[in-house]
Amino acid sequence: NLDFHASGRHFLQIPGPSPVPDRILRAMSLPTIDHRGPEFGALGRELLSKVRQVFKTEGPVVIYPASGTGAWEAALTNTLSPGDQVLMYETGHFATLWQKMARRLGLEPEFLSLPGDEGWRLGVQAEMIEARLKEDREHAIKAVCVVHNETSTGVTSDIAAVRRAIDAAGHPALLMVDTISGLASADYRHDEWGVDVTISGSQKGLMLPPGISFNAVSDKALSASRQAKLPKSFWAWDEIVEANKTGYWPYTPNTNLLYGLNEALDMLLGEGLDHVFARHQRWAAGVRTAVEAWGLEIQCRDPKVYSPVLTGVIMPEGVDADEVRRLIYERFDLSLGMGLGKAKGRMFRIGHLGDCNDLTLIATLGGCEAGMKLTGVPLKGSGVLAALEYFANHPLDTDR
Ligand code: PLP
Which residues carry this modification: N6-(pyridoxal phosphate)lysine (predicted)? Predict the structure, then answer.
């Protein structure tokens, strides 16, 4: 019944899109302005300079009016030529989709994988990348592509280790990193980690609606784009980077989402990125404490790479995770992430990113706990009480 009005606020606890703060909604509600006028140019220059601070880069950050998938395509088509070999790594569903895209674009992706579902439970094994690059004496591999925060599993890979692996092999391949769901929630350093193209999106840590996405671009990637032969036009960096120098775009940008981005950048940079990251780490630890108290298993098996963005909760044998999620949605107006690809029906994902607080997460855990009880999932104890205790005993430095 479409006329039915559920009272109270919906709990959007999927790992993106994440809840959009009122302050950003208000910023986006202002009238759309002339994208070639002086007011727009000033906005463009301001936000293009601020956005670099979030990627931690001195170089250009290209913004597309597209979802993250578009920015994936932009990264590949700007830098590569038909038939180029690319080394990709199976961390989960999103890495798999990016690999499929590379094949569809006429590239030759090689997909490094661990046996069974191991790769979906651990981060990127950088030594596998190093070993493969060392074998490639002809330097046929043109790019290494990895997902930083794998949204389908809740594993955040060590990108600095991937950089070290490429350097240890003495290999010139470009390093491309998808941090669509990691940026502005998990620590990320484009320049320091020697990343050539960083791909991100608006609807996760940046707390915006879906609709804009990003490529942060190194000098080496810009040079590669001048030789690369895959067809590109809408995605081509050169015209955008040129127009961006004065704060404009070569086509109509997503004006109102850019208002929102400017506001989000003020919020994130005003708070300080380190504080933003600490807040996410603490929420993630509280949620894991709850999962442990329930006696359930977390999808990520290596504590060094637990995601600060989301936690994958594995259901016991014989329980359909999608049924549990459906009941939780219908009964408690709470959206949780579904198991994707190989993990379909086996787990649900709790998003703890963006505009949350302790009590949003306690309510979320309450919905999970009640829903699991109602569907007969055997629980060892109360996750809600365990998380409350965790949050009470682990204040942030800014908590009074
Ligand atoms: N990569 C990752 C890690 C993601 O989480 C997503 C979306 O959730 C994508 C790529 C695809 O982005 P989009 O759905 O915005 O096109």
Answer: 204
Q: Report the distance separating Cα 232 and Cα 79, nearest Å.
A: 10
Q: Is the CB of 64 under 6 A from ligand 1?
A: no
> Separation of 154 CA from ligand 1 center, angstroms?
13
ipTM reported for the complex, 2 dp: 0.99
Protein residue with its CA nearest to atom 12 in ligand 1: 68
Q: Is 349 annotated as a binding residue?
A: yes
Residue 194 and residue 123 share a domain: yes
Global pTM reads 0.98
CATH code of the domain in which 309 resides:
3.90.1150.10
Residue-wise pLDDT tens digits, 214-224: 999 999 999 99
Using a 6 Å cutoff on CB, does residue 151 contact ligand 1? yes
| Pick from 354, 355, 346, 379: nearest CA to 365 | 379
180 lines ligand 1 (CB under 6 A): yes
Has residue 327 been placed in a domain?
yes
95 lines ligand 1 (CB under 6 A): no
| CA-213 nearest atom, ligand 1 | 15
Domain limit, last residue, from 219, 249, 270: 270
- Write down which residue in 229, 245, 270 finishes a domain: 270
Atom of ligand 1 nearest to the CA of 97: 10
69 shares its domain with 126: yes
Instruction: Write out pLDDT tens, residues 113-147.
Output: 999 999 999 999 999 999 999 999 999 999 999 99
Residue 246 sits in the same domain as residue 130:
yes
